[in-house]
Design a protein that fits this description.
alpha+beta; 7-stranded antiparallel sheet; 33% strand
């Protein structure tokens, strides 16, 4: 698991925003969905916004998926197309930004976020 302080900023394939942070005191998350007013169709909703603490097991699961996506260069892409995931990670090693194509690990991350 990554030692604090750290942050994960992720935008899913529909541009919904997920942010997770640990400042050394507590780990928290925030989900900021796209609203119909923000969507290109005027109809899409990413759901309800939510935020709260992250349990240690959720932090571990989150980082396992994020590290798997970060390490798998085969799923990285330079194009931010629909369905891709955009990441910005900050931890003791620095800042990394990358985009990944749709893949099982990205689907698993989206599922984890939905369960929080």
């Amino acid at each position: 698991m990554t030692s604090p302080p750290w942050s994960i900023d992720y935008r899913d394939g529909s541009a919904n925003a997920f942010r997770a942070r640990d400042d050394g005191r507590s780990a928290t998350f925030e989900f900021v969905p796209v609203t119909p007013e923000q969507s290109s169709t005027g109809r899409y909703s990413g759901g309800a916004p939510k935020s709260g603490p992250l349990a240690a097991a959720d932090v571990e699961a989150l980082w396992a998926l994020v590290h798997a996506l970060d390490d798998d260069g085969a799923v990285h892409t330079t194009e931010r197309g629909k369905g891709t995931g955009a990441f910005s990670l900050r931890d003791a090693t620095g800042t990394r930004d990358y985009i990944v194509q749709r893949c099982p690990a990205l689907a698993a991350l989206d599922e984890l976020i939905t369960r929080l």
